[in-house]
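During the reporting period the student researcher (J.K.) took over the structure-prediction task from the postdoctoral fellow and processed the backlog of single-chain submissions. One of the processed entries is reproduced below for the supervisory committee.
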Amino acid sequence: MTTPITWIIPMAGKGTRTQSLGEFKPFVEINESKMITWFLFSIRNNIKRNDVIVFVTTPYFSKKFEVEDTLCSVLKNLKITNKFHLAETQDISHGQSESILSAENIVDKSTTVVVANPDQYIDFCLPEVLTDCYLALYLSLSEKSGFVRIENGEIIHFVEKKNISNLASAGIYIVPKAGILFDAIREQIREGEMVNGEFYLGPVFNIIMKKGNRVKPLEVRAKYDLGNVRDISYFRKRFADNIRILNELQ
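J.K. obtained the following structure tokens:
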């Protein structure tokens, strides 16, 4: 039987680049479906029957947007029947790493964990055996993501918001034991390792590597960024056109 995975989906950010489309980015409507719906649809083949999903958001978003009830409906419509939890941050988060720590009391420290950013539509395959750490990567020529350096087939360094290789993090972070991730996040916060005033998750993997854990690249087959208005507009048009063309061919 496949070892269960815990999926952590952070939804506590302010979404400053998409405010014109809605206050709560995961619930922004894209072609009559919420962003979170598109994201979950794109990864649902990777979610196995015994996996657990943990969504992380703020008390403000949770109450104002009825997040738990809405997620119940979204998951039901997608026929994702997995058990899920809603974790709430204690106060204003100083970045994704702090938000993820809000799920620490829910997640079994010995279980494999996948942190997946929901502001995207992405296609990837999980490795059959998850004994090492993985970062999903894609080609990027900008400096808006985190980037890695690879030697001998393994990732040896992660840098946030600086293009050092054109190999960018796709926002899928895999660690074979959740305790490894939480311990590294605590060290990051303790050392004050921030970028632009935030604790980003990617640099946590530098700490994980220093402790002797191997981090391998994971191929992304397709990815649409949904983190800003321009990318959302492109996705809206592209998928609307694809659906229309397909219907015309049938």
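The committee noted the following: The CA atoms of residues 122 and 223 lie 4 Å apart.
J.K. will present the remaining backlog at the next meeting.
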